[in-house]
Amino acid sequence: MKRKDFLWLISLSAIILLLAYLSTTGILKKLTDSNPYLMGFVKVSILATMGEILAIRISSGYYQKPTGLFYRFMVWGFLGMCFVIAFELFNSGVIAATEKHLLPKASGSPFFSKLSIAFFTSTFMNLIFAPTFMAFHRITDTYIDLGEGKLNKIFKVKLIDVTNKIDWNSFISFVVLKTIPFFWIPAHTITFMLPGEFRVLTAAFLSIALGTILAFAKRKGKQN
User: Fold this and answer.
1) What CA dihedral angle connects 163, 166, 167 and 169, to 10 degrees?
2) Which residue ranges does UniProt annotate as crossing the membrane (predicted)?
3) CA–CA distance from 90 to each of 87, 146, 189 (Å)?
4) Which residues of 141-178 are buried (b: 16+ CB within 10 A; e: fewer)?
5) Which of 93, 81, 89, 92 is closest to 36 using CA atoms?
6) DSSP character for 108?
């Protein structure tokens, strides 16, 4: 393990320990309830950016500062705020639809009832919201790349150049049609089984997990 790998793990461990302390003391729930959008920004921007850096390390074999790191950080933060409202909209919507018998309600133990709500929430959110958010993120990343991470150049990039640069076939065939049903729906089903203050946070950790998996696959493809 290289020194930078150790520093990355130390940083992640410190964040996990801090979150554990805030959770056990009830501070995390209070902060999330009183400042949901701010906490969504902080949680996702930090963890997802760390995941992006780790993915580069795995796929390339060394650490490299992503192009336009600050702007990527801000985009992740904005998406974290979007997760806050999207999670609530879909979860509350599924609960309301279940109560109106528009969706099947699991009978029996409270666990299966909660699991049913979590599964439907994850399914609808990932089928409706996820493709839009993923496409938006792909577009913003491409703007940053084509603008070489410099704000004055980013504003000069044309949308047609961005859309032509993106491999939409790969986006649809892999990101949408494979990661959504086989990773995100099952993963977010677990997410919606958790208390509200942990959901956006878990989504951020999941982005690290998926980024790591994809980076290993990319590295293996290069080796082959």
Assistant:
1) -40
2) 38-58, 70-91, 111-129, 166-186, 198-217
3) 6, 34, 12
4) bbbbbbbebeeeebeebeeeebeeeeeeeeeeeebbee
5) 81
6) S
For residue 157, give every residue at least 6 positions away whose Cβ sits within 8 Å of its Cβ, in sequence order, or none.
143, 146, 147
Could you tell me the sign of the dihedral formed by the alpha carbons of 163, 169, 174, 176, in that order?
Answer: positive
Name the one residue in this structure whose structure tokens are 């959008």: 37
CB 201 within 8 A of CB 193: no
User: Tell me: the pLDDT tens digits for 30-56?
Assistant: 999 999 999 999 999 999 998 888 888
Q: In this model, does residue 223 exceed pLDDT 60?
A: no
Distance CA 154, CA 34 (A): 35
The tokens for 224 are 């082959």
Q: Strand, coil or helix: what is 14?
A: helix
Cβ–Cβ under 8 Å, residues 11 and 49: no
* Joined tokens for residue 53: 């850096």
Q: How many helices (H) and strands (E) does the chain have?
A: 11, 0
Place of tokens 């992740």: 76
